């Protein structure tokens, strides 16, 4: 059998692409190397724009809870910006359940699913693609969508990634807590906590309360292009972060956390995310928010675009890279420009401006709303950058000596 499309990787990106293509009647195979359901390194915070664009998620009862505001702390912990809203700023999910339910949706739409199946090699031929599994089995497909994460085998085997890439690193733990404890610490509104540049680390720490869980993590996101593969001792930093959280009374003093999970985060999109009969989406293409490390929106958005281009390719029987280049042409102005602008703004921020912006936001609710909204993906940075700059300049004069 030759499939119309094989999608490697069954996270939000892969399952979204499978759902969109399969519901149009195409013969789709969704592959996953792990046994489902499985854990995934993630805070589990969904930007509201995910639900706005993929509104079927609300109907599937897979959203765990909603967050209606939060607190952002400066590196020195001297300043705290807070925002409390009547509408949610984040939707919270348990990634193990979320990913599993997205796969079920794809299957319900007609996609075939095969887990515990690891891809060993990929051969791009004139008439089709050949996918070789670790157990020696082979299948054919007209086109492949690589949605297999930051260490994508599809990207490596098709020449789209030929060298070591710049990555961030995170450590987190999802802890089950009694709902009454959640309410006592984070109120009914499930207020989240964000620590920017914790102990001058280039990244941030987070506390995401959910219905009966709390997700605590820390991520290093170093945008220095010259530094590749060099990271801080993230586990040691995580232990320090937990101690600070207990001192600030953000988590229970008797909360015990062992065996935290870790993972890598892409920082820059790959220069090229397509080739003959191949498209890359989500982490495989390097799509991630360089401020927060959040990648679910980019994963699902690039999957949607890739699915549209794939169906056009199947309809026109055009699988060459010239035709598939429309994929990159389409995601670049939507996602690429946003990531590029965020990276540009971050690189301009040294330690003192970072401290100051939290200081000003702690006194200016409008700036606080803009900053937290940008960090959580509620606002597109291109739409609010001028407002942020304006408020920052006004506040720098108004609060300079306070």
Q: Uncertain runs with pLDDT below 50, 5 residues or more?
A: none
Average of per-residue pLDDT values? 90
Number of helices: 13
**Rough outline:** globular
Distance between the termini: 71 Å
Describe what this molecule looks like in 3D.
The chain is α/β, with parallel strands linked by helices. It folds into three domains: 1-44 and 94-165 and 268-347, FAD/NAD(P)-binding domain (3-Layer(bba) Sandwich); 166-266; 348-398, no CATH class. The chain is 38% helix and 23% strand. It has 13 helices and 18 strands. Strands 1, 2, 8, 9, 10, 11, 17 and 18 form an eight-stranded mixed β-sheet that branches. Strands 6-5-13-14-15-12-16 form a seven-stranded mixed β-sheet, with helices on both faces. A three-stranded antiparallel β-sheet has the order 3-7-4. A hairpin with a 3-residue loop joins strand 14 (203-209) and strand 15 (213-220). Helix 8 runs antiparallel to helix 10, helix 11 (351-363) packs across helix 12 and helix 12 (365-375) runs antiparallel to helix 13 (381-398). The longest helix is centred in the C-terminal third of the chain and has 23 residues, at 326-348. The protein is globular.
């Amino acid at each position: 059998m030759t499939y119309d499309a094989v999608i490697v990787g069954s996270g939000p990106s892969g399952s979204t692409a499978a759902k969109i293509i399969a519901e149009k009647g195409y013969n789709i195979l969704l592959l996953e190397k792990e046994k489902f359901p499985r854990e995934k390194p993630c805070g589990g915070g969904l930007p509201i724009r995910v639900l706005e664009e993929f509104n079927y998620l609300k109907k599937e009862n897979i959203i765990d809870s909603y967050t209606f505001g939060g607190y952002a702390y400066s590196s020195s912990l001297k300043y705290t910006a807070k925002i409390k809203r009547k509408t949610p700023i984040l939707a919270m999910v348990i990634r193990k359940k979320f990913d599993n339910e997205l796969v079920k949706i794809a299957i319900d739409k007609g996609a075939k699913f095969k887990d515990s199946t690891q891809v060993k090699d990929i051969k791009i031929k004139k008439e089709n693609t050949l996918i070789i599994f670790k157990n020696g089995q082979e299948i054919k497909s007209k086109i492949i969508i690589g949605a297999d994460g930051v260490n994508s085998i599809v990207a490596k085997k098709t020449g789209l990634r030929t060298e070591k890439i710049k990555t961030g690193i995170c450590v987190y733990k999802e802890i089950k807590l009694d709902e009454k404890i959640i309410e006592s610490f984070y109120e009914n509104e499930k207020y989240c906590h964000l620590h920017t540049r914790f102990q001058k680390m280039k990244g941030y720490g987070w506390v995401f309360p959910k219905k009966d869980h709390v997700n605590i993590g820390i991520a290093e996101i170093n945008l220095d292009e010259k530094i590749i593969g060099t990271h801080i001792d993230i586990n040691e930093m995580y232990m320090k972060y937990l101690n600070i959280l207990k001192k600030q009374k953000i988590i229970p003093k008797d909360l015990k956390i062992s065996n935290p999970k870790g993972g890598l985060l892409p920082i820059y999109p790959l220069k090229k995310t397509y080739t003959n009969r191949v498209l890359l989406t989500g982490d495989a293409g390097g799509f991630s928010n360089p401020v927060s490390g959040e990648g679910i929106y980019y994963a699902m958005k690039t999957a949607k675009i890739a699915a549209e281009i794939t169906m056009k390719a199947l309809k026109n029987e055009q699988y060459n890279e010239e035709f598939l280049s429309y994929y990159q042409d389409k995601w670049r102005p939507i996602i690429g420009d946003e990531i590029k602008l965020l990276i540009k703004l971050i690189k301009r921020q040294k330690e003192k401006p970072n401290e100051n912006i939290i200081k000003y936001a702690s006194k200016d609710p409008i700036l606080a709303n803009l900053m937290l909204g940008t960090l959580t993906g509620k606002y597109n940075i291109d739409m609010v950058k001028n407002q942020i700059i304006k408020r920052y300049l006004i506040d720098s004069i108004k609060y300079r000596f306070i």
